[in-house]
Design brief:
The chain has 201 residues and is of the alpha+beta class. It has nine helices and five strands; from the N terminus they run αααααααβββαββα.
């Protein structure tokens, strides 16, 4: 199961956003990493801007290059606006849905919960983080995992009304994926059109 295991604060500082979750380093050093990070005045090329946007999307959703490229090609063949379809498909990944439901504090933690068989889809254990959740499916915590401290801490005080495409039931610790989210409802600050332009070159 391939995943990014490199430095996270460094990447977050490069983009100036907490893309891996809350990061204390950003409040102290909100400038790019490296020896000249605070004094860098170099103008980024058009290609560099598009590449940075793609990298930001990859790191945000925890997807590696080949998988991201495959997802883009799939989105390009689907009906609708390619960039929006790409983001909707990324949002439909099981690890992301678990994160959006508040079962895990970060996408990396959600990926780990899925990989360790703590998550069920329609009552069946699914341990593939990239599993594409379909509208109407119910995602929940496995019965014997409901008392896990990491899950209870993540769910405590989480605002489940944040995402209109998810319906949460606190009693059963499960939620229904109602539909793929509209672009306006996805909070990530990703300029998906730049990603489309990059791959179209």
């Amino acid at each position: 199961m391939a995943r990014y295991i490199g430095p996270k604060s460094k990447i977050a500082r490069r983009f100036g956003e907490p893309i891996f979750g809350a990061d204390k380093v950003l409040s102290k050093r909100n400038f790019p990493p490296g020896q000249h990070g605070n004094n860098r005045r170099r103008k980024t090329s058009e290609y560099g801007v598009m590449l940075a946007e793609k990298q930001k999307a990859k790191y945000t959703y925890g997807v590696l290059e080949r998988q991201f490229r495959n997802m883009f090609e799939k989105a390009a063949k689907a009906d609708g606006i390619t960039g929006e379809v790409l983001l909707q498909n990324l949002e439909s990944r099981l690890d992301n849905v678990v994160f959006r439901m508040g079962i895990a504090p970060t996408r990396a933690a959600a990926r780990q919960l899925v990989g360790h068989k703590h998550i069920v889809v329609d009552g069946q254990v699914v341990n593939i983080p990239s599993y594409a959740v379909k509208p109407g499916q119910v995602i929940g915590v496995r019965e014997k995992s409901k008392s896990l401290e990491v899950i209870e801490e993540a769910l405590a005080g989480f605002n489940h009304s944040k995402y209109p495409w998810i319906e949460w039931d606190n009693n059963s610790k499960s939620g229904k994926f109602l539909h793929k989210p509209e672009r306006a409802d996805i909070p990530e600050s990703i300029k998906e059109q730049l990603i489309v332009e990059l791959y179209s070159k």
